Amino acid sequence: MQPHPLVLAPPARLPARYLLLRHRTARVLRELGVQPSDSADTLISALAQRLGCAIDVDSHPFKVPGFFGGTICTSDGYQILVQSETSGEHQTHIAMHEIAHILLGTTDSAAQAMYDGTHRTGDYSNPEERDAEFVARTITTWVRSDLDARLPAQPDDRAAAIARSLEDRISWS
Predict the structure, then answer these.
(1) 95 in Cβ contact with 40 (< 8 Å)
(2) CA distance 163 to 65
(3) pLDDT tens digits for 44-82?
(4) Is 8 helix (H, G, I), strand (E, B) or coil?
(5) Has this prediction a pTM greater than 0.90?
(6) How many angstroms separate the Cα of 51 from the Cα of each of 4, 44, 74?
(7) Angle 40-51/127-149 helices, nearest 10 degrees?
(8) Sheet of 77-82: strands edge to edge?
């Protein structure tokens, strides 16, 4: 697997830490060639290619209360398991949270937290879980922004030019 994280989390008490983490995440998305109009599947494929391994996302068979996802490191790469009993959008977010752990290089510590029973508490006092959630939200915003924020077609040329400029801003160009 990857020897080093692709997204390096800044030190815990650094001012503007999450702004820096957002910029580092966006830089990696650009390096992967992921466009704001691309899907989560495109990101997963690009990351798998960059890492030289498989990344498979499947519904997990575990009957657990609440929503749950996890990553298993295999000899071929990563197996991401997501809760099947939730909406497609939520399943995508769960998968992106697990992708964030891969990007941050925290899959081992996330597995330990799961084993210790602290992973599914909704308590983000664990800095690695908080970082993974932040990166997941950044990714989800990136890959869905163009789809969610596209403006309707404009009949007037001037209005169309303004709409294009707004879409560029929305999609982090």
Answers:
(1) yes
(2) 44
(3) 999 999 999 999 999 876 766 667 788 888 899 999 999
(4) coil
(5) no
(6) 11, 10, 14
(7) 130
(8) 54-59, 77-82, 69-73
